[in-house]
User: Fold these one by one.
Assistant:
Number 1:
Amino acid sequence: MGIILDLCCKRRKRSYEIERNIFGLLNLGNTCFMNSSLQCILNSKKLIEKLINIHLLNDKNLKLSNEISILLNNVKKGEKSYNPKNIKAILAEVEEKYKYTEQNDANEFITIFLNQLLKELNGIFQNEYTTGKIPRNDLELQAFNKLENRFFLKNKSFLLNLFYGRLKREYLCQNGHLCSIKFNNFNTLILPHPEDSNELVDLLNLYQKDKLINDTIFCNECQKEMKYSIKTSIYSIPEYFILCLEKESIYSSSGLNYPKILDAKDFTNNNNDRYSLYSFIVYFGDRERGHYTAKCDKINNWYYISDNSYKIIDPKDLPKEINDRNAIILFYEKI
């Protein structure tokens, strides 16, 4: 199948501008969380390049992938409005709450959506995953390989490099001895509410701060159960880096400051990659009810998108519009 799709990709000859064309999504009743999420996810160039011709495989098992492929092709043909009812119905088979019309969280939707795509596309594209950074010692390598075998090697998909990164967690006893290392995968990071700073880089560093655990762990050095802390490190970052803020973060008067260009060296070790903001989700409302919208960089213009309506953001208003205190989910792409 991968060979067939690669040939399809080579025959396409379409432009980047067509791929990231603008379109609206109908609100099916409190589905702004889904619509804004889809707008940002489907503004990811490399994802579009792979998915646009998936429907040509005529594989009935690729329900969500086929529906996204149909959407992209309709947009390519000039359709400016799309009814996402089939996408919602497909995901309702995975997550029952999507059968109903209650408002849901956009960050949770993004995780469920990407995981379902990953499940469907396992094995469709071959030989498109690289391990990246290699562990530096035997203890780290052993923990790293557990995650590789459990997740990254089990799921053979181009989505891994695009959207899935790794977290390293070191378990340290109260005397500072390293007791254990574990690795976990992620496709979004949910960052903590800012304490003394409203800068995104500070939140990323706060996320990796040692956290004292109200429990004990056996320490080989101390030869007994000890209280411990966990140090989390962002070990590897995917090409599309999705950062979700706790809703509490947007209730402060100053909001969050996030850069247009994010330097990984400012919050990781041995990583000099840079990431550019290309989309983000805005949330208006309170803790119970609100409205999600999206702002996306498409065809050299930024657009404001609210369900089925959209407009170009005036260049003179751009500095203010892309530094929105109500931004809650940020999408960065590696440059």
Number 2:
Amino acid sequence: MLKQLRIIDLPRHVSGGFDHGDVHLSTGRVFVAHTANDTVEVIDGERLAHLATVSGCEEASGVLCAQDESLVIAAARGTGKILLIDAMTEKVVSEMHAGSRPNGLAWDTHRKRLLVADVGDNSARILGSSFTRVLSTISLPGRPRWSVYDARLDLFLVNIREPSGLFAISAESMRGRFMPIAVAGAHGLDIEKDEGRAFVACDGNAVVVLDIETGKEIATVPIAGAPDAIWYNPQRKRLYCAIGRPGVVDVIDTLEFVVDEQIKTEEGAHTTAFDQARQRLHAFLPGSCRASVYEEI
């Protein structure tokens, strides 16, 4: 079960809210896109307190931690830029243009390459390890949502809103294939690496479990509303699915394919970050400008 540990105050905003977050696992620092303020907020995951604000990330959207490199990659959707932030110092070390409206991010841990899914021109760009050169631009069949990299299958995976489905891109050949999904509006995405399964949270109020290699739908789990960010916990075989309306996190048992817990967050709270090392889930609350921290017990 998830037990609430702390409520953390974050910098105020007039309207709007937060987008994706991620955790630098060695330090426990949580980085979250504060879209309303054009910033990335940093939370000290050990002391459970706000630590710093990184400015200059206009219309902040995707945030991704490259763990081995101690880098935080943040998409500034408003300027078409990608910011590289040092996870230890919270300083921007470089920035580069990466399309018109970069959003979803995925990190190839083998080749040290970055996929940037662009919601402006419905494309995916793969940047080289220096982040200065676009190696390939791949046209997508529709508007991209969230993205991940599957190291075991050596694939970038990108959710597509319409037509609803999962687009798989070979990290080696950079060729893609589309896997349609029966539920409308593929949005949140995470993977179960050992089983080769993808969890796709859809606007049609369900999570679809997909076999990545075959494209076969294994299960469909109804949830309380239209979701956004999801995180898979391989230690507990649980999937955390944030739903802005009615403001809950549905927790799915990925062995039985049922919702076995629901926690109330706040109306509009649609995004989270999961600290696998400390077994903590951070839910970002736009109405009250706070983060609610839960721990698996």
Number 3:
Amino acid sequence: MRTTFFVNAMVLLEGQTSRILCDPWVTFGNESDSGFFNFPRATLTREEVQEIRPDYIYITHTHPDHFDPITLKLFDAATPILVSSYEHNFTERAVRGLGFHDVRVVPLNDGMALGDEDYVWMEPSARNPEVDSIAVFRLDGETVVNVNDNVFDQTQCQRLREQVGGINVALVPSGAHGPWPMFFDSLSDTEKAQHAAKRAQLQKESFVAYIEAFRPRFVVPIAGGIMCGGAKAKMYPYSGIRPRSEVVAYAREHVSFDFEPVMLSERCSFDTATGQRQGGYVEKSLETETAYIDELARVPSLFGPGGKFYVAPSERIDLSGLLCAARQNQQRWQQRYGTKSEIAYYFDVGEQLLYRLSLADDKVSRVRESDIPDDRYEIFRLPYELLLGMVQRDYVWSNVNTQHMSFYRKGDSMDPELMVLLNYLQI
């Protein structure tokens, strides 16, 4: 069984019968509709991606660095797409919306046959069951688990390992991307550095926890290969994402058994049967890729003057009515989830007044930031055009809340239920 790495979580798994491409995403020539870009720079061409011709494509979830319409449209629409069996299967709908007509939802517990004796077991992430998944493939008699950038769950990992009779290869995230702490205006640079160090340590511990739970022979570090464009590209010293060699070195010191790390750069492969490697690992970091980061920092915003989604201030309307209708829809989902909260949240679109909403009621009001009455709240600073697009279902919160926003938090911690419910603030 051969594993070929491309970028981020884009990995090709090849057995003698089945070839599965996971999460294809390439930002060709710094081209991105999402505001996210490969890091380090991917050198794949469109023609090279088309030549992969996988038997199956596995879409782990619909975050932009895993589900990219630009890249996916390079593949034959008849290619079978594998997705997890979610309760509300937004992933299946999104894939079908691109024109793929052979979308296979893998049954929970039973899994699904691929070619000959090849097989796949797949299920939603235990910690984020709405938006992520985990899969185990059996190819050429070997088992390989892909956890992409799931949040670690001990029980789920151990159960899957027992279900398939052990894991030979584990694709494990060495880093996880997110807005905390680098995009939080409520933190000083010193505080960001402190929180980034804590985040980096937690990611190393998660890497170790995955290895301990699956006990694989081979570990392939993946994920974390993503960067925002514009001014945010310069903020990544506060991301908490560390070089893969550092994460692997930590794991070798803290994992209780011997495992073989398989470090792969773009286009590099490893054959588990023969132990042969194609291509050498070259580590790239914020320090080595300064020219590329400078390029990304100059990428203009889609929502700024001259951007294709820009709305001039003279043409903007008060969004209170739309937000009120969207809040009523969000409230229905809040009741489905059984969420009881009084947290207030605000949208700052660069006007004198912020929009105030709360999970305690369905009211929408306007208030100056200096007059905020709440003791605990979140402010989301974002372009007017983006807020309008989210309310009208042009965008989904979880796909745009990092690259196009900054944050201000008053209070000790994030409210995870609010983060889920913001996906339903739509009319």
